[in-house]
Amino acid sequence: MRRVFQVRVKQTSSSEVEIDLTIDVGSENYDNDADPRLKIKKQTLVPSWKPPQTNGYTIGVLTRNKLHLNPIHAAVQFRPSMRHLSETESKKKTVVSKKVNDVVKIEEQQEAKASGMSRKQKAPGEAKDSVEESWIPLKYHSVNSGISEGHLQKMIARQGPEVSFSMSSGDYLNSLCPGSSGDSLSSKVPLRRSLLEKPLKERFETWLLEGPPLHRFDTLMHVAPDQPIEEVLAVLQELAVLVQGLWVPRTTLYAEFKEGVNGLARNIVLLLFSKDVIIKDDQIHNRLPALAKAMNQVLPKFATRRPTFRDWKLKELPDSNFIKLYPAIVKKQQENWETLEKNIDARAPGGKNGPVVKPSDSSTQANPVEPKGSIKPAAGMSSGSTPRNVMSEEDRKATRNALLKIFKINKTCSFEQISQRLREMAIDNRMRSKGSAKESETAANSIVASPHELREIISEVAVNIHGICVPKSSPDHPEYDDLRKVVIDLFLAKGPDGKLRKAHIIEAANMKLKDVSETAYKKVLQELCVSQGSEWVVRNNIPATR
């Protein structure tokens, strides 16, 4: 029987955790005849690797006949440390290596004298980088404790809206194992065996048209396992468009969308989803009736209706891996969407007596003919498909306050993480009837209603370090903001994936500031960064706020 008796965490890195377990020396599995130097009365568990990304994963709590799912923001695996074996081995070598060590010490003294340095001196960079990090003890609460029970109750929803599942069992199986199911429920989905017999372009065209509406790149590679990635990407860009890192068949591939308002509606839906995974009802209702009706007919193909929030949410999570691995393609596709948006007047075509508009994909120019008497964009609205509302000063202030609350809890965030937290704040405050509900609702609405102004407001309070937003002023230690600015400027100059050493930070700080205390250095780095050995990187993980 083993139990936890101590837990500790590194002062500057929440990913370095150690757990000590007691060992039952009276157990029949304990070897009392083992070498005394190998006997241990406690076992230490340490993380075996850097915590992986856990987007899309949940943990379930089963109570009676109900399953409650909760999103997982981080996960780490612990394994037994073999440190005690290394310590035992070092003791064996102590006697043998004593004479050798004496010789080494003499040689080091001679070298130090020859170079003008005493044996006790170290290089400046080495002296600054060798500060040992301290461990902070934590209190462990067992599964039966009151605190653990309280957290468990928070994971159990009291009530909520019914979740709508629009995917059939056959479609679900094929999304996991593409083209492998011959179930009658998904008879339209081609078998992988037959696809591999076709030329590459025909292979993808068949799969895109007859398969699911949204495709991850890793899944598509199952259809072309023997082809170079460059050729696959070239064919995909010819047949599909990119939405949140997911590949979607071009509108022109479908006969029913080649003429009329239906094709335009499909392109507008994809354009809106290319900006955000959520489309608000207002973004549909402010269009001409015929176009709004056509959009409502297209949306169920790609999204799930959420009546409580009055919006549509994309069925698939964004493919963040593809976005990270192929930034050039993502940028090109984004430019195509911007070109399409500039050439679509979403408020004019599609009325009862309006013209027939030939749709176009994001890689081509779209110039809808504007009929007489068509509605012009109002003041504060762009001529594109997405209304650009002008936020009042009161709304901007409410949004700014909501952002400061997020940065108070989460020291660094990406734009997507900020959007997620704003929505969560609005939902939490609405359910708890908090006084700040209006403030968080205003901030959450700005994500869709005024995304450009939201980015502007973020830039007022934070600095974008290659995709990670960092508050300009520390919410906890504003007295160290001068050093904070030095560190931020160094990361901006380093570029993506930049790393800093303590020596570099101190050197840059001494050039601009008179004196940098060790306390200031630790406080600033702990807020902005995580350590990787002797180097610091910008903190890019965000803990749960609930």
Structure description:
Helix content is 43%, strand content 14%. By secondary structure, it is α+β, with helices and mostly antiparallel strands. The protein has 3 domains: 4-82 and 136-154, no CATH class; 196-342, no CATH class; 394-538, no CATH class. The strands form 6 sheets. A 5-stranded antiparallel sheet has the order 6-3-2-1-7, with no helix packed on it. The protein has a 3-stranded antiparallel sheet with strand order 10-12-11. The chain has a 3-stranded antiparallel sheet with strand order 15-17-16. The longest helix is centred in the first third of the chain and has 18 residues, at 98-115. The two termini are 34 Å apart.
**Annotation field: number of helices:** 21
Could you give a short account of the major beta sheet?
A: 5 strands, antiparallel
Shape assignment: globular
> Which percent range fits the helix content?
40-55%
Average per-residue pLDDT, rounded, comes to 74
End-to-end Cα distance, whole Å, is 34 Å
Strands of the biggest beta sheet: in what spatial order?
A: 6-3-2-1-7
Poorly predicted runs are: 122-131, 179-188, 346-360, 362-389, 542-546
Which class of secondary structure composition applies to the elements? alpha+beta
Overall strand count: 17
Radius of gyration: 30 Å
Number of domains: 3
SS strand fraction:
5-15%
Topology:
Layout (H helix, E strand, L loop, with lengths): L3 E7 L2 E10 L19 E6 L10 E6 L2 E6 L6 E3 L2 H14 L1 H18 L8 H6 L5 E4 L7 H9 L14 H8 L15 H4 L4 H11 L6 H4 L8 H11 E4 L2 E4 L11 H15 L2 E3 L1 H4 L3 H14 E4 L4 E4 L5 H6 L1 H16 L50 H17 L5 H18 L4 H13 L1 H11 E4 L2 E4 L9 H14 L5 E2 H11 L5 H11 E4 L2 E4 L8
Antiparallel strand pairs: 1-2, 1-7, 2-3, 3-6, 4-5, 8-9, 10-12, 11-12, 13-14, 15-17, 16-17
